[in-house]
């Protein structure tokens, strides 16, 4: 596959997943109104689609100019590491919903983002794949991780909400309304 086509597909997938995540945040009230830590986790999940999507777009701008895409990948790798390091420790203390997502990002996302940054800064010689292909493999892992984290956070059980008791039936078994 042509590297440009690959990165175009990855960009499309990531921005589609980002849009779907925003819909999930809108529809799942506990992600919107669950407090600052839950909202930070929702934002951290959105970054797992936004960073790889933006990188995929940048990889297509000038793939023959290594300094350009290497700078973009190294900065994005550092940004990914920093976003996880800054947001996940506080999020871990919130609840099981956000704790699982934060752990996934710390255990898997941090090393992947670090590898993206390191490999962009210090290319390894003698590899059977090109540098952009290796970075593409790591971005593909981030797509999987982002989708899995979104599922873990978005599909966690909502805290029990207060439900108003149903009105008592009258003598004939009908419920009164109003």
Characterization of this structure:
There is one protein chain. With 178 residues, the protein is mostly helical. It has one domain (3-154). Helix content is 75%, strand content 0%. α5 (96-121) packs antiparallel against α6. The mean pLDDT is 82.
Largest sheet: none
Structural class: mainly alpha
* Count of all domains: 1
Cα distance, first to last residue? Answer: 65 Å
Rounded Rg: 21 Å
Q: What form results from the Cα inertia axes? A: elongated
Let me know the average pLDDT: 82
Beta-strand proportion: under 5%
Uncertain segments: none
Number of DSSP-assigned strands = 0
Helix residue percentage: over 70%
Total number of helical segments? 6
Sequence of secondary-structure elements: HHHHHH
Protein traits:
178 residues, mainly alpha, 6 helices, elongated
Write the layout of secondary structure elements.
Layout (H helix, E strand, L loop, with lengths): L2 H25 L1 H5 L2 H26 L4 H27 L3 H26 L9 H24 L24
Helix pairs in contact: 1-3, 1-6, 3-4, 3-6, 4-5, 5-6
What's this entry about, in short?
This protein has six helices and no strands. The protein is mainly α and 178 residues long.
């Amino acid at each position: 596959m042509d590297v440009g086509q690959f990165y175009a597909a990855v960009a499309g997938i990531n921005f589609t997943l980002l849009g779907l995540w925003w819909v999930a945040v809108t529809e799942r009230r506990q992600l919107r109104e669950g407090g600052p830590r839950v909202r930070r986790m929702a934002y951290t999940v959105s970054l797992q689609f936004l960073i790889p999507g933006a990188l995929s777009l940048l990889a297509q701008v000038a793939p023959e100019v290594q300094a350009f895409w290497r700078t973009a990948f190294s900065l994005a790798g550092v940004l990914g590491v920093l976003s996880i390091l800054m947001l996940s420790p506080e999020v871990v203390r919130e609840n099981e919903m956000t704790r699982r997502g934060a752990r996934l990002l710390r255990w898997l996302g941090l090393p992947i983002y670090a590898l993206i940054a390191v490999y962009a800064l210090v290319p390894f010689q003698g590899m059977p794949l090109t540098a952009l292909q290796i970075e593409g493999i790591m971005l593909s892992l981030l797509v999987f991780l982002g989708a899995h984290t979104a599922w873990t956070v978005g599909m966690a059980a909502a805290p029990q909400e207060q439900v108003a008791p149903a009105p008592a039936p009258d003598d004939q078994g009908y419920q009164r309304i109003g």
